[in-house]
């Protein structure tokens, strides 16, 4: 284990809990400790995992407090809600370098506004959607990080592109102009009480990423794992975990 890893573990397990004592800070500290421990168990550096704090349906006051406590990446599922929060945070804390991630299903009629609000979109699931996002990003003079959402279960409530279509979609996105930067894959397994039941889904998404790499499509990010199973996801290679209730409590 590197010295840097030990430094991170010390900071996250000790200093944070000493510096702050309110409930939100304790929850954030706990999540970071768990990320560190899961990464170390997997033989990975803790800094290889980014925490996306999921704030949908939580008040902007909770987001503002989280920003004050050091969180910088926030995930939202609804464009209008994210736009309102982003505007408030920018107004109240203009010097904070906050990044906003779209983690919910993106409707094409919401793309124009989404492009202006978000820095990263996790839920590209069709060539048609990718084209519209690319067009509006080009008009805005903006480059967006994007991930392809892969549907790995048969649940009607889950969106995403079927595994068989991932390579073609990745190739099309790579062939667009420079306004979309394809960085990875995202998936949402079915909900299980036992996080071990999510493991095959996480492993499958990692395998898909490896298959693409073998075919010349290198992707660095795997967005997978939520409050109930993010440690298992990290063990299977997650580089972004989307955590809401473990940080902010029940909605």
Automatic annotation (TrEMBL):
The keyword Transmembrane does not apply. Pfam families: Ala_racemase_N (PF01168). InterPro entries: Ala_racemase_N, PLP-binding_barrel, PyrdxlP_homeostasis. Residues 45-250 form the Alanine racemase N-terminal domain. The modification N6-(pyridoxal phosphate)lysine is found at residue 56. It comes from the Bacteria. Keywords: Pyridoxal phosphate. NCBIfam families: YggS family pyridoxal phosphate-dependent enzyme. Belongs to the pyridoxal phosphate-binding protein YggS/PROSC family. Pyridoxal 5'-phosphate (PLP)-binding protein, which is involved in PLP homeostasis. This is Pyridoxal phosphate homeostasis protein.
């Amino acid at each position: 284990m590197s010295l840097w890893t030990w430094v991170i573990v010390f900071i996250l397990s000790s200093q944070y809990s000493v510096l702050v004592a309110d409930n939100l800070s304790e929850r954030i500290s706990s999540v970071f400790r768990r990320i560190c421990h899961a990464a170390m168990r997997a033989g990975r550096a803790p800094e290889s995992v980014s925490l996306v704090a999921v704030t949908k349906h939580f008040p902007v006051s909770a987001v503002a407090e989280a920003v004050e406590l050091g969180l910088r990446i926030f995930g939202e599922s609804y464009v209008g809600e994210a736009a309102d929060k982003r505007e408030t945070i920018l107004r109240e804390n203009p010097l904070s370098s906050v990044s906003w991630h779209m983690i919910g299903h993106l409707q094409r009629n919401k793309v124009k506004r989404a492009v202006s609000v978000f820095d990263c979109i996790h839920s590209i699931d069709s060539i048609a959607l990718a084209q519209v996002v690319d067009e509006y990003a080009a008009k805005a003079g903006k480059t967006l990080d994007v991930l392809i959402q892969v549907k790995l279960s048969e649940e009607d409530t889950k969106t995403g592109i079927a595994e068989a279509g991932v390579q073609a979609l990745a190739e099309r996105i790579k062939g667009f102009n420079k306004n979309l930067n394809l960085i990875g894959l995202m998936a949402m397994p079915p909900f299980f009480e036992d996080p071990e039941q999510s493991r095959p889904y996480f492993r499958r998404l990692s395998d898909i990423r490896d298959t693409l790499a073998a075919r010349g499509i290198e992707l660095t990010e795997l967005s997978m794992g939520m409050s109930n199973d993010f440690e298992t996801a990290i063990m299977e290679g997650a580089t972004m975990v989307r955590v809401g209730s473990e940080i902010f409590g029940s909605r």
